[in-house]
Amino acid sequence: MDDEGFESAFIETLITQQDKQPTFIFTSLPTPNPIINQLYNREVTNDIKDIENSFKCVYKKQYGSKVSNQHFKQLNLNELQTPIIIQTKQLPLFDSNFTCGNLAAVYQVDKFEYDLLLQEDINSTSYSQWFYFRLTNPNDQKCRINIINMTKNYLQYQNGFGVYIKLNSQWEVLKSQVLVKQSQYFKSNFCKTTTTKLYTLSFWINRSSKTLEIALGIPYTHLDLDRYLLKFQSEILAYTISGLPVKMVQFGSKRSDVILVIARQHPGETVSSHVCQGFLEALSNDKTLQLFYNIIVIPMVNPDGVKWGNFRCDLSGKDLNRVWQNPRLKYHQQIIQIRNLIQKILNEGRQIKTFIDLHGHSRKLGTFMYACRNNDDPIECRILPMIMAENSKYFDFNSCTFNLKSYKLKTARAFVYNQIQKFNPNSFHNIVTLETSFFGYKQDNKIIQYSQIDLTQIGIDLHQSLKIYHMQQEQKTKIFQDLELNKQYYQQIDENQPSDDSDSEPEIGIIPDENIQKKTILSKNSIKFLGDVPKTSTLKKRTLKKVSNPQLVGQYDKNYRFNRLSRTNSKSQIAINQTVQIQQTLSPNITNFYKINRNLSSHNTDHIHMHSNNGEPYENVQSCRLLRQSTTRTPKEFKMKSEQRLKFHSPNDKLIIFEQNLKIKRKNTQKIKLF
To answer: Where in the sequence is the active site (predicted)?
Structure first.
């Protein structure tokens, strides 16, 4: 695609976006640099694995033969430590062989244009949504970057957001337009839960610095966390698969009720670490909340995924926020230890007053919460989000949701909520997920992109909101009264509210609640009008099956037997066909056999309905009826026959004989025990 098409497509997307949403003024980015016209045009619709046959590879990083798309038990961790780097001496030079770097390969498609392939999450076949790499450009050449295997369509770039670039140890927004479109490549080896669509993210690099670092969001590595935690007394909660520690920081008395905060379950959601650092900074400066509560913070639950540049999974290829119900002992020690910590707190008689799981969001703007509400009270769960909205300019109360959907039952929020409800079913607890946008927020009809200071301030605002909620009862009561006026309105919203619209897909085998079709329930009157559904006995079903499949009469009645005997070329089928032919010559037609049994009564002499006097079978039902009409009895003969039937064929014969014998025994014995 040439540059003229690049620019026109970008303008077209802006026009369509203006038709759908209200117009916002973007203030944090200056006017983007114009895109230079380019005559080179590419029309490629191949599988992405065939890109090596079309263009020259200038950079490639390989971890080993058993890393990609393999089960974790077959993975050798030593291969991760020493990746194979293939790079040419052409300029500019690309590099991702550092912590959090996830650039897999670079192909030169033109003199100043490069196609980049991102590394997928280790032991998975998707989630190439996060990028972080280094670019060395000593000659200050302007180059165009195309990341061609993005699995997420970041529509927010249409609002004018830019990628982040690091210059002189400071992260800032790159002054270049970003275009996201459907990729000219497709991928054929996706797993069943994902699509084959790929997207291309394109932008220009025209800075004069020799070495640049480029990322989707401002990175926050596990090394950055270790350096920051030096000012606190941290504990090691667990160790990951590769041996990295999962650290925990506690404030206040360990005998008080608990406020538990966790972050960074998903490695690519770096905004959650910046928010968590702001929250820790506020705790260190203001110790008021620590006097009444035991505050526990786990700032990085998934350090393995952070180190190796994953977006969503750990090294086992699993989403840690989907294994809370059944974590595996070998792979998910941090989740098991957090669960044990929660169980220990509840067993000690303490309560978890607030649980907050910090995440990042790629679709919405601003900061918002996903909360858990009680079925009877839609107001209590809205108090903390409303306090947060009044104390933080970044918080968007209208983006919050308060329903817990069925396909979210394996998340941390759902597990902690259900666990606490077992111990205290009659009390309310704040169990929320705090989501922060990857891009920015809206303020006064303007869109502003997040800076590192903004993200840290969100954590400080969260601490201030918790102080108001737990310690300032007057302000909390006032907000409660304001929400109570619209209780019926909030009740209707919660009933019709869609899912929380997170970046994850629904779990396999679980249908989202809003996609379940409602079943029509018939009332008693409608049942009377339509009539009762006739019941069919098991014997009748078996009979009907045999009538519809006469070849299977007398055979074993199982489905797998039917499938086996229905093969025309099998030896057993040939034997069955021969048996059926013999039966058809010696017995009545099968369809008429049951009619004969049903129409002829049982009082005919000598059971003549089955055989004629000469021993030959009847040919049809009509001959049986004619024979029945010719067989007549006098009333006296009929009476004698009925008396004989009552005497010898009565169903109560055994009971009569038993009673007669019992009378005889009573005469001979004084005590008889009946069982």
So the answer is: 435
